[in-house]
Structure formats: C-alpha cells, structure tokens
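Hypothesis: this fold can be encoded by more than one sequence.
Test: take the structure tokens below, design a sequence, compare later.
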C-alpha cells in the first residue's frame, strides 16, 4: 500500500534529517522531491500543486530555519498537510434511522458485493443487526455471491431470485427488516463498465425509495487518476455521502486516496485491504498519513488486536515497540495472534518499518512464508529469540537446519528484524520530539 510514495517520501525525510544546515535552497529541493513523489503516485496535478503551495508557505521562512530542529519541523508540516489532504478526521457512518440504510454503488468489479459483506460484519461487531439486500438483478451469480457471503458471516441476506424489479426487492426487504428487527440495511447494487444513464436512473429510483442515510461509492484504488472522475460523476448523479476505497492492499500507487477528498469533498469512510471479510477498516486520515510516512500505524494495530487479544497485553506491546524492546519472541507472538485478524501483509504493514520489512519477504504471496518464519523463530532457544545478537555462525547453522531453510534466509530474517527494531526506536524518539514541539503528532 503506497509503497512507492512511502519510499520516496521517506528518502526526502532521510535527507532532511541528515542535513547539517538547512537553508532555503535545500528546503526547496526537498519540497520539489515531495511534489515529484506525489505526481508519481498518481495524485491529481492540481491537488499536488496546492499541497506543495501550503507546505512551502509554512516551510520557507526564517522561523523554520532558525528553529532547533528545522528538518523535523518540515517533516511535521508535511505530515500535518497530508492528514488535511486525507480529510482530517475519521468520518463515521450516519445511521440513526431504524432501519438505517446504506446503498453501495460503483463500477463493475470495484468491490461492492465484497464490501457489502465486510460492512455488514463491521456493523454487526458494532452491535448493529445488519441485513444484506441483493439488488443486482442482472447477474444471477451476484445474488449467490452475496448469499454465500451472508452464510459465511452468519448474517441474513434478502434475496428474490428471478425477480427483476429492483424497487420491488427493496420494498420487500425493508418490510422484512422491520419485522425481523434488522436495524441496518445494506443494499448491494449492480455495476456497469462505465456510468451510463440507465444505471443512474435505476440507482436514483432506488435511492428515492429507500432514502438511504449513506450512499457510499465503492472505488478500486487501482483506478488511478480516473477514480476522481468516477467519483465526481457518481456524486453529481446521486449525492454521495462517502467513499469506500478497495484494494489498498494491492500495488496501487495511492493517488486516488490522496486526491479524492480534495477534489470531490467526499470523505473516504472505509478502506478494503484484502479479500477476506475482516480486511476492512474505517479510514483514519492521521493514521494513514503516519503509515505513508513510514511511521507505522500501531494504533490500528492495537485496535485490531484488541478484538482478540487482551488490551493490557496490546498496550504492553506498544510500549515495548516504542522502547525498542520488541523481541523476536514478541514478533512471533504478535504474528500468531494477529493472523486471525487479517492477512499477514496487512498486519506487518502496520508496524513502523513494517512495509520495508515486507519488501523482499514476500509475505503477501502465501502463508508459506509465515510458516517458514515461524519455523525459524521456533527453532531458536528462548534466549536466542530475546537476544538474537548471540546468534553466531554455528547457532545459525543449527537453526537453519532445524527449520529447513538456508542460512541466507535466516540471515535475511534477522537483518530485517534488526532494521525494524531500529526503526521502532527512531519513531519512539521522533514522537517524543514532536510532542515537545507541540501540536499534532504522528501516533505510535
Ligand atoms: N485484494 C483485494 N481484493 C478485493 C477487495 N475488495 C474486493 N476484492 C476482490 O475484487 C473482486 C470483485 O469484487 P466484487 O465485490 O465482486 O465486486 P463488485 O463491485 O460487486 O462487482 P460487480 O457486482 O460485478 O459489479 C473479488 O474477487 C474480490 O475478492 C480488496 O479490498 N482487496
Ligand atoms: Mg457485485
């Protein structure tokens, strides 16, 4: 997620931190690099330009240069502007009605049906009683897809096979919701290759009938620049209340996420980060900015963990990460527990330096990789897990043999882990420093 952008911005930051003396000219160089990084990530041209203007305004000035930590000041300015760009605060769902209705709309294959299931699961975790309604009458398979999802999630799905009148389905589903005490109704609608008049007409009629409090556009993050146009069109036709951005786990360059709020004024409310039902998160601009800047998103990590892990334990881990006392044993523990909560990639990616660790580790490809890591760590003695620095050549050979990997693979894991630990320590320091400077700080 945002790998290229993230890597480039982190390089700019490395320079800013490393520069002994910061002058107007090297600030300008850094800002230019930030601009190039944004454009490369497919951020809308105007959005990138305005972003840079705002950063420049604040960064180029005697006050920054004369401050004790000019590099850090500029990093803070960029971080805060990134938060603004992404929408400042988490925009929650407005679902006060009984039932509260959500309509999911979007182009073909954008992830509507999958997101409908994910949203139903999320709402049910919030204590709501969701009902999924299959309103895609064009593909019989679409109804079955939603039914299957509902079965997996153990949530009711309203389906009328063979019925082609969307409005009739909707009307009946609302009656069903009322009599069965379902207080949140999610309408999964049909997609089209592109927005056309019949689709818009159908969606408008459905909207006018069910009067949803939320009309969410489901958008594939990989749509790139076009995403902004799609959002603008749907918004004009239906007056959206927000956006669900899917496939953020893929190699999308991320420009859509960064441009949408600025161009359309509509907040991203949720993001899809994988194919499984649990790979779904409310969108928090500040946390996302921290992730993009390589500062990790331990808050989301802890929140996810809290679903299954006890909270005190999670807090203790956060503290350990900050102090750089996070061991291989903790790492293994966390991986094992959190594997229950989502794909390994989405979890490790939340750790400070985690995205770097993922590069080359190829966790996304399969759980096989995880098992190899697990095997390697399990083949270590408890003492070795806590103090990997004692792993000399002989010990390394033993562990590699014991877990059926090559020494090079083991070395690779240890090196990556070491880098991650260093990154965690650095982030702990940065956080302290930002705290002293006051204002918003990237959370860790
Ligand atoms: N990796 C990843 N895949 C996703 C995500 N969301 C959806 N998908 C996949 O995208 C494909 C299409 O998803 P659907 O939910 O069927 O899309 P849709 O918008 O309902 O498609 P139509 O009904 O044909 O318009 C499926 O294979 C999903 O598993 C996501 O966040 N990450
Ligand atoms: Mg669908």
């Amino acid at each position: 997620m945002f790998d290229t952008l993230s890597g480039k911005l982190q390089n700019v930051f490395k320079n800013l931190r490393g520069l002994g003396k910061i002058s107007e000219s090297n600030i300008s160089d850094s800002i230019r690099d930030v601009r190039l990084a944004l454009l490369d990530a497919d951020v809308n041209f105007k959005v990138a330009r305005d972003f840079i203007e705002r950063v420049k305004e604040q960064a180029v000035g005697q006050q920054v240069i004369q401050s004790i930590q000019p590099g850090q000041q500029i990093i803070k300015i960029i971080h805060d502007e990134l938060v603004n760009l992404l929408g400042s605060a988490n925009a929650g769902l407005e679902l006060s009605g009984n039932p509260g209705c959500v309509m999911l709309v979007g182009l073909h294959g954008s992830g509507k049906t999958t997101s409908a299931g994910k949203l139903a699961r999320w709402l049910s975790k919030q204590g709501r009683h969701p009902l999924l309604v299959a309103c895609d009458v064009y593909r019989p398979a679409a109804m079955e897809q939603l039914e299957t999802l509902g079965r997996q999630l153990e949530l009711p799905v309203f389906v009328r096979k063979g019925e082609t009148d969307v409005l009739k389905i909707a009307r009946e589903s609302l009656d069903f919701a009322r009599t069965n005490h379902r207080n949140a109704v999610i309408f999964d609608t049909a997609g089209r290759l592109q927005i056309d008049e019949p689709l818009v007409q159908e969606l408008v009629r459905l909207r006018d009938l069910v009067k949803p409090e939320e009309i969410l556009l489901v958008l594939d993050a990989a749509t790139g620049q076009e995403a902004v146009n799609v959002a603008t069109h749907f918004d004009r036709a239906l007056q959206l209340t927000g956006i669900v951005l899917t496939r953020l786990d893929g190699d999308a360059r991320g420009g859509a996420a960064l441009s949408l709020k600025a161009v359309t004024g509509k907040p991203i409310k949720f993001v899809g980060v994988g194919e499984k039902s649990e790979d779904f998160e409310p969108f928090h601009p500040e946390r996302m900015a921290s992730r993009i800047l390589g500062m990790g998103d331990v808050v989301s990590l802890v929140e996810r963990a809290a679903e299954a892990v006890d909270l005190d334990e999670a807090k203790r881990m956060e503290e350990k990460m900050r102090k750089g006392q996070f061991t291989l044993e903790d790492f293994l523990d966390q991986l094992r527990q959190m594997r229950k909560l989502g794909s390994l990639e989405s979890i490790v990616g939340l750790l400070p330096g985690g995205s770097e660790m993922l590069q080359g580790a190829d966790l996304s490809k399969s759980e096989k990789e995880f098992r190899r890591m697990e095997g390697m760590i399990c083949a270590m003695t408890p003492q070795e897990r806590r103090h990997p620095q004692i792993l000399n050549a002989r010990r390394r050979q033993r562990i590699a043999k014991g877990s059926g990997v090559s020494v090079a693979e083991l070395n690779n894991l240890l090196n990556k882990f070491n880098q991650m630990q260093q990154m965690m320590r650095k982030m702990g320091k940065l956080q302290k420093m930002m705290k002293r400077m006051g204002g918003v700080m990237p959370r860790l």
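Residues 100-292 form a domain with the Rossmann fold fold (CATH 3.40.50.300). The radius of gyration is 24 Å.
Hypothesis status: open.
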